[in-house]
Amino acid sequence: MSVLMAERLDRKSDGDYPDIHKHWDSIHGVYAARVLPGQYYVTNAKDEMISTVLGSCIAACIRDRVLNIGGLNHFMLPEGEGGMDGVAARYGTYAMEHLINDILKKGGKRQNLEIKIFGGGKIMKGITDIGAKNIRFIKQFLATEGLVAEAEDLGLEFSRKVNYFPSTGRVLVKRLRSLHLENIASEEAAYSRNLKQESVGNDIELFD
Amino acid sequence: MNILVVDDSAAMRNMIIRTIRQAGLGDHDIAQAEDGAVALEAIRKSVPDMILADWNMPNMTGIELLEAMNEEGIKTLFGFITTEATADMRAKASAGGAKFLISKPFSVESFEKVLGAVM
């Protein structure tokens, strides 16, 4: 195996994102950073693609179109109040702020943001359409922020594989067949259970 | 009481204002500013009784706002509501004279506890 090949098998995780694993993707000729439910990742590397697999969750792909810095998040709203006043919307706003803040911290400007949104599929049987709730949130969030999604593929009875290229803004979305549904549903269910704790938020500090 | 909410996200400002009201503090006048620089201009004209500021904002961050107020001798109740809250940030906030720091995602209960303690 050549040195080049060995180097391309893996890339060290970014210090800011220690949980994001990257591997060389020979099909697209880039390093692929895999974002799992609840994670997000921002990069300015031209040779990186960000991948995630969505069921009822949402991924917002956001970049500064001038500096070519961007990233993607993967989140869902916690169970509970469905309105824009409760725990759910507070958590969603927090998830979006994390991603946008990191782009701005790397020099991005709010007025240069290019936004594409995906996911919110109805992948679970039952009356509650979690995906629809997530879609309602992201649309309302963008409207409040005065931001417009330039592309979207949302809802319907699909899960989706998303490959995002932040340096160009290109997104490849593959609607997945039911074969993959069980894995995605169980991954999202585990994420949803963790969210019940994480989303409550009670970290306060009073100074003397 | 006059409260000024400073955050570059309109959605987050709305969320903070709703949470203040849900925490039973709905009878106060609440104004908003989208970054530290806009807030400082407003504060120079009329000093609010309390400022709730994000940390990371374009033009002027929350800590820069607090430091600018200190330089100009403007004293009022100041607290941070922020996504990032490292030990270094907490130390800077405390050294600057901030009274509290609430980490996002926040809850109605966290607002009740903090605002109940400082008001």
From TrEMBL, chain A:
SUPFAM superfamilies: CNF1/YfiH-like putative cysteine hydrolases
Reaction equation(s) it catalyzes: L-glutaminyl-[protein] + H2O = L-glutamyl-[protein] + NH4(+)
Keywords, comma-separated and alphabetical: Chemotaxis, Hydrolase
Keyword Hydrolase: yes
GO terms of molecular function: protein-glutamine glutaminase activity
Gene3D superfamilies: 3.30.1330.200
Gene Ontology BP terms: chemotaxis
InterPro entries: CheD-like_sf, Chemorcpt_Glu_NH3ase_CheD, Cytotoxic_necrot_fac-like_cat
Enzyme Commission number(s) of this protein: 3.5.1.44
Family of this protein: Belongs to the CheD family.
Functional summary from the UniProt entry: Probably deamidates glutamine residues to glutamate on methyl-accepting chemotaxis receptors (MCPs), playing an important role in chemotaxis.
Protein name, entry field: Probable chemoreceptor glutamine deamidase CheD
Native species: Spongiibacter pelagi
Automatic annotation (TrEMBL), chain B:
Signal peptide: none
Residue ranges occupied by any Response regulatory domain in the UniProt entry: 2-119
Keywords: Phosphoprotein
Modified residues (4-aspartylphosphate): D54
Transmembrane parts of this sequence: none
GO BP annotation list: phosphorelay signal transduction system
Gene3D superfamilies, per the entry: 3.40.50.2300
PANTHER family according to UniProt: TWO-COMPONENT RESPONSE REGULATOR (PTHR43228), TWO-COMPONENT RESPONSE REGULATOR ARR22 (PTHR43228:SF1)
Protein name in UniProt: Response regulator
Organism: Spongiibacter pelagi
